[in-house]
């Protein structure tokens, strides 16, 4: 890689810049590294043979911005200072960062449906993986562990299965190289993926962070993985982020409604642009306290108010006895459909199942209106399940619900003046409401009455 011996070499690059990498197409891409103070630096790309020049700062840091063309490759990138580094087999395409806890980290080797078939078919030379190694730090780091690899059965088996299936769908639909950066760690709360000052500056978030119990298999203190596994990637140009996390934050689910948007805001602020941020709603599971899981899911649903976000609902492909559902293919496909529709303009692909929008009282009934139900609603089974209604006493009872066009009418014999509806309001609910595009409805509640988890 270098034309001089390590003892004489001065110019260095972070691990994210290496052979086999993918750079974002049609973008201003920042490339950075280190060298001796005032060392002249020249970066030349083979796609245009233009040299971009700078000088290393007094602190030994340099960066340049190069313009990338439309998707293609392989290319080379040459970095020249007192020594020369040549990066080979560089592709230009779409780059996505995926992050979260164990369900995002989960690999075919760990166990997924139809693993053998998926691994066997994973030869995609133009899909590239960068798996960030587990590290923690008390302050932002300059570099991280990991390397770029092409997708093969040998590399795919240990990479994020959801990310792979997502990337495969994008690659086949867009016909461009795909770069996937996986920075995930099982068991981590959202707080560890954020700059700690975001938590400490908000008394409510700081108090909620104290409820995250220490674990043997993952860090729990704010900032620990952000400093070591995310900060060194900034500002590597990405098309967007996929996020699958939340199970650990059921310890303080109601604070997630502020915590999660704060995370999105901070990441976008650090990168300097409003990239798409798509996330999975956690699956049904038998959590310890009766409503902690569904409250977390509802906080995720409410986070859709953040611009340029999208949510994958998976209450139809979960496993109430296993916090790691093994159907990762459909999760990856649903992520891909959101990205293909919202980021890449494939408007024929479905973005979401029904999402509650508003309610109207009609005598002793309530009519519910939904987004993503324009083509109609569908019931899998004879009757709609998991609806509850309450009157002024705030006591919810099972309700009868029926589809009326793209709305639902809910009522209960003992509730003459209904005030609120809840749907799929339990940790383990596996409801049967879908839109005609086959995607499930998210749990929701129309009220904001206080809920105690004691």
TrEMBL record:
Keyword annotations of the record: Hydrolase
Pfam family, one: SASA
Keyword Cell division set for record: no
Keyword presence, Ribosomal protein: no
InterPro entries documented for this protein: SASA (IPR005181), SGNH_hydro_sf (IPR036514), SIAE (IPR039329)
Coiled coil (UniProt feature): none
Residue ranges constituting the Sialate O-acetylesterase domain according to the UniProt record: 94-339
PANTHER family named in the record: SIALATE O-ACETYLESTERASE
Protein known as: Sialate O-acetylesterase
UniProt organism field: Pontibacter rugosus
């Amino acid at each position: 890689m270098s034309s001089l011996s390590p003892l004489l070499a001065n110019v260095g690059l972070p691990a994210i810049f290496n052979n086999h990498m993918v750079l974002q197409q049609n973008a201003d891409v920042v490339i950075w590294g280190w060298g001796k103070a005032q060392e002249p630096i020249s970066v030349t790309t083979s796609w245009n043979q233009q040299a971009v020049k700078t000088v290393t700062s007094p602190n030994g840091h340099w960066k340049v911005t190069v313009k990338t063309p439309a998707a293609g490759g392989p290319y080379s990138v040459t970095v020249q200072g007192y020594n020369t580094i040549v990066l080979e087999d560089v592709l230009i395409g779409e780059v996505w960062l995926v992050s979260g806890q164990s369900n995002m980290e989960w690999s075919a080797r760990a166990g997924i449906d139809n693993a053998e078939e998926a691994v066997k078919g994973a030869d995609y030379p133009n899909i590239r993986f960068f798996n960030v190694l587990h590290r923690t730090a008390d302050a932002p780091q300059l570099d991280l562990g990991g390397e770029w690899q092409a997708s093969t059965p040998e590399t795919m088996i240990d990479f994020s299965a959801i990310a792979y299936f997502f990337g495969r769908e994008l690659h086949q639909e867009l016909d461009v190289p795909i770069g996937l950066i996986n920075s995930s760690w099982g068991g981590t709360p959202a707080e560890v993926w954020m700059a700690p000052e975001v938590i400490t500056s908000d008394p409510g978030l700081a108090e909620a962070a104290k409820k995250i119990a220490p674990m043997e298999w993952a860090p729990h203190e704010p900032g620990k993985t952000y400093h070591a596994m995310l900060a060194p990637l900034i500002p590597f140009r990405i098309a967007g982020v996929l996020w699958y996390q939340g199970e650990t934050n059921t310890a303080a689910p109601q604070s997630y409604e502020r915590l999660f948007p704060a995370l999105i805001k901070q990441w976008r602020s650090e990168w300097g642009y409003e990239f798409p941020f798509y996330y999975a709603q956690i699956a049904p599971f038998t959590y310890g306290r009766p409503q902690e899981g569904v409250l977390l899911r509802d906080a995720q649903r409410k986070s859709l108010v953040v611009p340029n976000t999208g949510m994958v609902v998976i209450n139809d492909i979960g496993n109430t006895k296993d916090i790691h559902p093994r159907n990762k293919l459909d999760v990856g496909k649903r992520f891909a459909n959101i990205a293909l529709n919202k980021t890449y303009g494939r408007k024929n692909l479905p973005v979401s199942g029904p999402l509650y929008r508003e309610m109207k009282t009609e005598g002793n009934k309530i009519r519910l209106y939904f987004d993503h139900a324009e083509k109609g609603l569908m019931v899998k089974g004879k009757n709609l399940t998991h609806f509850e209604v309450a009157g002024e006493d705030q006591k919810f009872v099972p309700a009868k619900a029926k589809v009326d066009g793209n709305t639902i009418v809910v009522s209960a014999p003992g509730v003459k003046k209904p005030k609120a509806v809840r749907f799929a309001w339990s940790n383990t609910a596996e409801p049967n409401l879908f839109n005609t595009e086959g995607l499930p409805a998210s749990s929701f509640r129309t009220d904001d009455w206080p809920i105690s988890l004691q």
